[in-house]
Design brief:
CATH topology: Rossmann fold
Helix content: 25-40%
Number of domains: 1
Number of helices: 6
CATH class: Alpha Beta
Order of helices and strands: EEEHEEHEHHHEHEEE
Bound molecules: adenosine-5'-triphosphate, magnesium ion
Strand content: 25-35%
């Protein structure tokens, strides 16, 4: 089991009663699983992914990544687990503006503890990933010079640099055209075939064409789905 989410809820104060952004969600991902979650805006998708990545703490329930319960880890241990074992592609902009595209993709390597940074920076792997997302020609550009979809594709390459066991992606194709969406989803399928687990959120229905399991999230409640609702 790579990721295990058990009876997870997240409430925020809103008016008199607590507001459930995520309500009693359980979900498990094994190696090779490519799980897609769709749902309307505000249904709790980013909240669920943030909790799965250990960035948001749940109100109730438990998340374990590779057998390690987030609730039992110190902040430092949780950060190390996230940086070394997971690739997280967030919904909003996430590239560092003063770094080039290539330097941004290499970031996960530079934040590794010194003992794990053996040899030279993995420029060849970063370049290969940039090529796979169609961004190698712009490797020396800065984020301000890129379009929204180009920024997204660089963020995807960066999340894959250290070949993480779990990739969590929040609307990774939201600003991509159909051709680039296909390319990214094929890349994700290949990564799942190699044994990683993928948890991918979208608010459009297209990723139901991809992955081996699909779910629908509405008002924080997760239901299994074999086709777009
Ligand atoms: N920090 C917060 N404090 C209070 N309410 C929040 C907070 N974060 C999210 N919410 C609320 O929780 C609900 C779910 O938000 P979330 O961002 O998870 O939705 P989403 O499904 O990702 O939406 P979108 O498709 O627009 O990205 C929303 O109603 C939002 O207003
Ligand atoms: Mg969201």
């Amino acid at each position: 089991m790579i990721l295990e989410i058990c009876t997870l809820s997240k409430t925020y104060p809103r008016g008199r009663a607590p507001f459930f952004a995520v309500r009693d969600v359980s979900l498990s991902l094994d190696a090779g699983d490519f799980v897609c979650i769709a749902g309307p805006s505000g249904s709790g998708k980013s909240t669920l992914l943030g909790i799965a990545a250990g960035l948001i703490s749940p109100t109730h329930g438990r998340v374990c990544f590779q057998g390690q319960d987030y609730g039992r880890l110190s902040d430092d241990a949780l950060s190390a687990l996230r940086n070394q074992g997971m690739g997280y592609i967030m919904q909003g902009p996430s590239l560092l503006p003063n770094f080039t595209v290539l330097q941004n993709v290499l970031l996960p390597y530079y934040v590794l503890p010194r003992g794990r940074r053996t040899g030279a920076a993995p420029v060849a792997r970063a370049s290969l990933l940039l090529e796979q997302v169609g961004m190698l020609p712009l490797a020396s550009q800065y984020p301000a010079e890129l379009s929204g979809g180009e920024l997204r594709r660089v963020a995807i390459a960066r999340a894959l640099l250290l070949a993480p066991g779990l990739v969590i992606a929040d609307e990774p194709t939201g600003d991509l055209d159909e051709g680039h969406t296909e390319e990214i989803m094929r890349l994700f399928s290949g990564i799942a075939r190699e044994g990683a687990a993928l948890l991918v959120v979208t608010h459009d229905a297209s990723p139901f064409r991809y992955g081996n399991r699909s779910y629908y999230l509405e008002a924080g409640v997760l239901t299994a789905s074999s086709s777009p609702p």
